Each structure stands twice: as C-alpha cells, then as structure tokens.
Amino acid sequence: MHQPLSKELIHFINYEANTTWKAGPTRRFKTVSDIRRMLGALPDPNGEQLETLCTGYELTLNELPKSFDARKEWTHCPSISEIRDQSSCGSCWAFGAVEAMSDRICIESKGKYKPFLSAENLVSCCSSCGMGCNGGFPHSAWLYWKNQGIVTGDLYNTTNGCQPYEFPPCEHNTLGPLPVCDGDVETPPC
C-alpha cells in the first residue's frame, strides 16, 4: 500500500488505478494529521442514516437552470452566505449540520426566523454524536437537534446567540493574515 501524500500514490492513481481524475501534489496538506484534522465526519457505527423525506423528480437538462445561487434565491437568510471556520477542531460534522439546520429554518419560515445554531453546543453537549473535536456522526447530530434541540451561537468572538464558537479562525495550510492552525484542540466541556 502506498503512503498518503506520496509520489508513489500519485503515480499509482494516475497510471494504474484507471480513474477518471488526475492526482497531484498539494500544498494544502503536508502531513496525514493535517488531513485528519479536516475530516471530522465519521461513519455511523450502527450504519444508521437519516430517512429520506423528499421525492425525486425526473428532469431534462433543458429544465435545469444554467446557474443557481442560494444566496440570491434566499437573500433574507444571512446564514446561507456565512462561511464558518472550525479552527483546529475536527468539527466539520457539527458545522455542516448546524449550517444546514440554520438555513432550513430561515428558508421554511420565509425569513421570519434567522437563527445561527451553535456548532459548539453540538460538539460539546451531544454525547451520542461521537468524539467532539475528534470527529462525529452527522446522523446523530440531526437526531440530537430533533430530540434535544440546539442553542444559538455564531462565530468566534461574537456575542450572537447563547453559545458562540470558542476557537479562533486560523489558516488551514495556506498563507494568509491569520495564525496557522496548529495541532489538535480539546473538545470544550458542555
């Protein structure tokens, strides 16, 4: 087996694996720890998935719009255009969940409710969701919201909501004005 991020793995993918895409070196990740830090969503240990509630539609390519921008479709929902930074906490599973939940509440209420649900609350307080900053189960995040609820809370260093995110934004393997994301962080207590 080839080591992750190695020239041998890139060569294998490009010349032996019969893929439809081309691999190449990346400046974004230097180590496997860099990659692991960004992959916080874990498969559910029981194989559970959320129930599909929507119905599929058959469309032709001509029926699809040439472009679609949710920020323009639902301008009354500020959560849709907000980009949150998980810092060095492996909490993408929580961010993805609360961002989608916040957006859905705003869209469904036609802008009457515009919450920014707290990723920190989900990471810290949902004991059935996984391992906090070391990864979690998206399916469990949705069940937690349904059964327990999630408080509001926005970005680091804001006063929006009950429980804002406590980790500061950082540069994820890029050069920029923020400090570099360095090392792992402990999951905050609930």
From TrEMBL:
UniProt cross-references to SMART domains, sorted A to Z: Pept_C1 (SM00645)
Domain Peptidase C1A papain C-terminal: 64-190
Keywords on record: Disulfide bond, Hydrolase, Protease, Signal, Thiol protease
Repeat keyword on record: no
InterPro entries: Papain-like_cys_pep_sf (IPR038765), Pept_cys_AS (IPR000169), Peptidase_C1A (IPR013128), Peptidase_C1A_C (IPR000668), Propeptide_C1A (IPR012599)
Domain of life: Eukaryota
GO BP term, pick one: proteolysis
GO MF annotation: an example: cysteine-type endopeptidase activity
PROSITE patterns per record: THIOL_PROTEASE_CYS (PS00139)
Stated family: Belongs to the peptidase C1 family.
Protein name: Peptidase C1A papain C-terminal domain-containing protein
Naturally occurring in which organism (per UniProt): Schistosoma japonicum (Blood fluke)
